[in-house]
Write a structure and sequence with these properties.
single chain, alpha/beta, Nucleotidyltransferase, domain 5, 6-stranded mixed β-sheet, 21% strand
C-alpha cells in the first residue's frame, strides 16, 4: 500500500509518501492557501503529483476538529476549510478517499504506534503547547477516527477557585472554547505565562519561567509549583477515566524533561492505579508527529 499524508498548518502544508509506518518520505513543504478552497485543493493535488505514486488514499492532520455527526470541520486558522464538510469536499476534488484527524489525535496515534506508547493498549497523548490538547488510542486505533473530542482533557470547568500553598485565588479566565475555568487557560505555555503574571505581576516567557524554576528562582518555583498542582489533578482524572497506561507528552513544554518528570510524579500520586514506573513521559518520535500520525491513520484504514 502507498498513501500520501499531510500535516496541514496555518503557514505550510507538509506532505509525505508513506509505504509503511516506518517508511515515511517527506516532500517539500508548500505555503497554505488560507482563503481559497480551490487553491487549497490544488496544492494538495500538486503534492500528490510530486510524490510519483498513485496513492490509494490520502490522510490529513489538521489543527481543528471534525464533527463526527455532520462531518463539518472547525479549523479557525484556515478560513477556506473552516465550516466545510471537508472530507466530502476534498474527496470530490481529489478523486480519492480522504481521511482526516486532529493534530493532537495524530500525535497520540504516532506515539502509540511508533513512539513512547508502543506496547501499551491504551495511550492518552497529551499536548502542552500554546494550549492543552490530547488524543486517545485504544488497541492501536484512534478513538476519534470519525472525528470528535475524545481525549480533549484541557476543556471543561475544572480549575479550583483556590489552589497552592499558601492558597491563592485562581481567576475564572475565559477559554477559547467559550467556557471558563478550563485547564487550557493555564496548562499551556500561554497559560503558564498568565499564571506567573497573576502571581508576581511580571511578564516572563514560558521558557524563562521554566529556566528560572530549574535555577532556583523563588518566584518561578512558586509558579511552577502551582502549575503542577493545577495540571496534574485533571490529567490524573483523565488517566483514571480512560485506563491509559502511558501518557506521552508533546508540545513546547514537553521539551523540559524536569518539568515532565515533576508532572509525572504529581499525576502518579493522584491516580487510582499504583504505577511503579513513569506514566507521563516526553514523546519519543523523531519523525514529525503530524505526518507520522496521518500516515498511520491512512495505512491502518480498511478499504
Amino acid at each position: 500500500m502507498a498513501i500520501v499524508c499531510f500535516d496541514i498548518g496555518g503557514s505550510f502544508i507538509r506532505g509525505a509518501v508513506a509505504l509503511t509506518p516506518r517508511d515515511i518520505a517527506p516532500l517539500p513543504p508548500r505555503p497554505t492557501p488560507l482563503d481559497d478552497f480551490d487553491a487549497f485543493a490544488t496544492t494538495l493535488i500538486g503534492v500528490i503529483a510530486a510524490s510519483d505514486i498513485r496513492p490509494e488514499r490520502v490522510a490529513l492532520s489538521i489543527t481543528g476538529i471534525i464533527d463526527p455527526e455532520t462531518g463539518i470541520a472547525t479549523v479557525a486558522n484556515i478560513p477556506c476549510i473552516h465550516r466545510r464538510a471537508l472530507r466530502g469536499d476534498l474527496q470530490a476534488r481529489l478523486g480519492i478517499e480522504v481521511l482526516i484527524a486532529n493534530d493532537a489525535d495524530c500525535f497520540a496515534l504516532a506515539e502509540a504506534g511508533l513512539g513512547a506508547g508502543r506496547g501499551h493498549s491504551i495511550v492518552l497523548g497529551a499536548i502542552l503547547g500554546s494550549g492543552v490538547g490530547g488524543g486517545l488510542v485504544v488497541d492501536g486505533r484512534l478513538v476519534n477516527s470519525a472525528g470528535g473530542f475524545a481525549g480533549e482533557w484541557g476543556h471543561g470547568p475544572v480549575l479550583p477557585t483556590y489552589a497552592g500553598d499558601p492558597p491563592v485565588a485562581i481567576p475564572a479566565w475565559d477559554c477559547a472554547c467559550g467556557q471558563k475555568r478550563c485547564l487550557n487557560t493555564v496548562g499551556g505555555a500561554r497559560g503558564l505565562e498568565r499564571l506567573h503574571l497573576e502571581l508576581h505581576h511580571e511578564n516572563r516567557t514560558s521558557r524563562e519561567i521554566v529556566d528560572g524554576w530549574q535555577s532556583g528562582d523563588v518566584d518561578a518555583q512558586r509558579t511552577i509549583g502551582l502549575y503542577i498542582e493545577l495540571v496534574s489533578a485533571p490529567l490524573a482524572l483523565a488517566v483514571n477515566i480512560t485506563g491509559a497506561s502511558i501518557v506521552p507528552v508533546g508540545g513546547g513544554l514537553a521539551r523540559s524533561g524536569p518539568l515532565i518528570d515533576s508532572l509525572d510524579a504529581a499525576v502518579r500520586a493522584r491516580t487510582l492505579r499504583n504505577f511503579g514506573r513513569p506514566l507521563v513521559v516526553p514523546g519519543s518520535l523523531t519523525i514529525e508527529p503530524g505526518l507520522a500520525g496521518a500516515a498511520l491513520l491512512g495505512l491502518g484504514a480498511s478499504g
